[in-house]
Amino acid sequence: MASDYVVYNIVHMLHNSSPEELNTSLVRILLSLTRSPDAITRIVSVIKENDMSHALIELLNSPKEELNIACAKLLTTLSPHIGHTISDRLCRTRGQPESLIEKLERTQITEKHAIFTNFLAKLPYQNLTLNLALLEKNTVTTILQRFNEVQRGETRTSRFTRPYLEGLVGILVRFTATLYDPQILKMARAHNLTSVFTELLISTAGSDEVQRLAAVGLENLSSESVNLSKIPQEIQVKKSSLQRIFSGCFTIHPTKEYKLMACPIHRGVCSSHETFCLLDAKAVERLIGCLESENSKVVGASLAAIITLLDERVDVDKSVVLLSEANAVRRVLGALKDHREESVRRRSLWVIEKFLMRGGEGSVVFDDISRDRSLPSTLVRAFHHGEGSTRQMAERILRHLNRMPGFSNKVVL
């Protein structure tokens, strides 16, 4: 059933057939075949070699809802393999991609709404063509309106509400992957996406996936903060003028106004909407709170966002102090103990090592870490079972704490 011959003929029939019932059956057959790794490889190969992706995308415009849903599911499944091709074709199809975010008109959220939004959310975030097409159609405003309607109870909820909201947030996150584009940067500032994602971290209508996506969005935005934060030019100019006038009389020191305006982490003027500063958006405390989630993906994404505040391009010493005051040390140690996933373990160790190196012996941070009685055994476990970089970090932390046992050269796996 999954041979090249069969797959080719199914795809070819889909391309040339007109009855919608037949198209629906053919798409469902292909969708069922994708459960097999070998079959999905053949399907992808046939579609790429015969440039058939446009035939599937055209079916999204069909008036038959069953065909729409089946086709969107198939395209979502194929996205990891030919996502950029699908994105480019979608942008060249009449009525797309804007029609995938249908106007609800305060009616009940259906499976079609959820499938369509998640299809857009799962396409490659870095595809600038699709992101600009969505931006041009004012999709961001529509998404925020839909989300607010659900939050206020103006739209009837259903079992598809949660996946629908997850899809909407996923579409918002995709824009944060292409902030280098001036139009997208302008949009992110205009809609204050930093505050939007910060609120989603504790949204009552959210879910673990919404929290994870919000943390990913904040990570992407925060990564740009150091580039966008600038020393206040107006104060620099004022200071230079005074220095010229009173040159030789006395030394002009930085004003209190400048100290108040400068972000302690990014060293320049910061705000949540202009530079996407997590500190100004009050997102730091919420991200730290997410470290207590039972969902490892939420914890991993939150750690990744926090790590942007410990980048070597920012004032790491100030970041360590601020994070320590927000009880980050205890939460990170807790995440390391509670979750065995490699991404959580690696990121937790990275943060702990940064705290130790920057805090220094005798500091509050160092004392908090060194007094944790269960940490050595957790580090030994990471040394034995972690991947390369994880093992190295665990070893360095153990040595820094003078807790390194006498391991043999042979590592127990």
Automatic annotation (TrEMBL):
Task: State the InterPro entries in the record.
Answer: ARM-like, ARM-type_fold, U-box_domain_protein
- Span-the-membrane segments of this chain are none
Its protein name is U-box domain-containing protein 42
Species lineage, top-down? Eukaryota, Viridiplantae, Streptophyta, Embryophyta, Tracheophyta
